[in-house]
Every structure is written in C-alpha cells, then in structure tokens.
Amino acid sequence: MAMSQQELIDTLSGLALFADLSRPQVEAVAHKMAEESYPTGQRILRQGFTGTGFYVIVDGEVAVKIDGNEISRLGKGDFFGEMSVLLGEPPVADIVTTRQLRVLHLGGPELEGFLRDYPPVMLRMLKAVATRLRNANRWRS
Amino acid sequence: MRYRAAVALSDEQKAKFLGDVPLFAGISAESMSRLAAVAGEQDFTAGQFIVRQGQVGTGLYVIVDGSVQVVRGADDVLATLTAGDFFGELSVIDQQPRNASVQAAQPTTVLAVASWDLLALLEQDPALSLNLIKGLVVRVRAAGEQHRH
C-alpha cells in the first residue's frame, strides 16, 4: 500500500506530535526520518536488548509486551523507542506488530538533535511523557 | 500573593544554586538569568503543605534546603526529596490536578517557578525541555519496574 509523499505529509500533519509544525517543517521531518513497513507479528524492539531508535506510527498498531504479557497497544500517532534512546538503556518491553505497520524511524543518536531542531515536537513529546507517567502512577495506586 | 518571599537570595545566588541542579544543566545563560529572576523563594515550616493532591498546579518547586515528603492519600509516603530535587512539574506540563501532596518534613526553603514562566522557558530553551523529558522518562521507567515486581 504505497503512499505518495504528498499523502504522507498530509498524514503527518494530522498527528499530534507534529501538529504545531508548519508544512515546510513537516516536509523536512518526512525527509529526515526513514519510512518503514513491517508485516504482522514482527518484533521491532526487543526487551533487554539495545534499542534501535525512535519510531512514530503512521498507520497500523503494535502491542507493548513485558515478559510476554501485553500491557498496552499503540496506534497511529503514538511513538515508541524514545525512552531507551534518551536513557541509553535497553528497552524494558517488546514492541510487536499486531497488523501491517507503517512507521517513521529515526536513529537513536539523532533523536536529541532532532528534538532540539523542532521545539514544538519536543513540547508535544514532553506532554505525552507526562501523561504516560500519570498513567504509570495510576497503576501503582 | 499567597506566599510572601523571605528575600534572602539574590538573583545571582539563585542562578548559582539552580546551575548545580541537574534539571537546569546545559540551559543557556539567558534562560538561567530569566529563571533566576522569576524563581521566588518560599519558606515552609515542618508539616506545612507545599502542594496538595487534587489541586491544579501553579508551579514547579526546587528544594534549596530542608526535605519534603511526597504523600498520596492520607499517609502513603511515595518519596522523600531533598536539596536539589524538584517536584510539581507534571501538573504544570499537562494542567491536570496534582496526583500527590507534598509536605515539608522539616523547615524547608524552595525556589518556586510559576507555570506560565516555566512554560515560556520550555518553549524558548530546548535544553530545559530535553532535561525535563529525561527526568520524566526515568520516573516512568521506575514506576513500570514497581508495577512489574
């Protein structure tokens, strides 16, 4: 299911993470990040092993699994991989596709520079991580 | 104003102290001088609440001296924080009610940064945003670990 560059830009503009960027900025982001596709059942990040970068889901869905148990699912507009990259530690969960997946991928070493280049994306990520922390704390109580 | 600052630290002293706090490592000199100018010193006696669970956050707090307890509900102590630690950032970022109370465990001095000042700094200085994301990610991971075991 090929998507034209134009369709990709339109899709990215609609994702929360990129919502505050101008069209030329979104085009630059699409150029900077690699578009990748994965079939159903593919493991993209492996718990306990070195992380391979930052991923933004353009289309599809993945399961987040810890010790084989599914703890959540992520879909279009969600992102993953940034925790291990920013901490410099292996992922604490497996990320496995539950159906055909299209992502934008950025190599780990490039993430900090990318966020510095696009402060609105960084702020969106900050809010998303804050929400994740709240949810994580909710499990504890 | 709810609190009256004791006016003991100069902006220069505040900048020097904040410069040693990891959260503010690597931020620009301009951001640091703005931060020092807007950070208000507040003193609390032992047992006094600094933030209360359920209230929407009005700021970020950095402990200068003393210690605090992070408390959920009536007596569930989640953490004890000391000089150089910070709290209150979550509610500033997502504008949701505080998920815990923070109470001074002894006479405690903090520097308080109001929500709007912090948000303005975050928009202007990517280094600060990046530090804050890393700080939150560490805590997400710690919460997840606790969830698992």
Account of the protein in words:
In chain A, 38% of the residues lie in helices and 28% in strands. Chain A has 141 residues and is of the alpha+beta class. Chain A has a single domain, classed as Jelly Rolls (Sandwich), CATH 2.60.120. In chain A, the strands form two sheets. Chain A has a four-stranded antiparallel β-sheet. In chain A, strand 4 and strand 5 form a beta hairpin. In chain A, helix 1 crosses helix 2. Chain B is of the alpha+beta class. Chain B has a single domain, classed as Jelly Rolls (Sandwich), CATH 2.60.120.10. Chain B is 39% helix and 28% strand. A four-stranded antiparallel β-sheet of chain B has the order 1-8-3-6. A four-stranded antiparallel β-sheet of chain B has the order 2-7-4-5, with no helix packed on it. In chain B, helix 1 packs across helix 2 and helix 4 crosses helix 5. The N and C termini of chain B lie far apart (44 Å). The chains are: A alpha+beta (141), B alpha+beta (149).
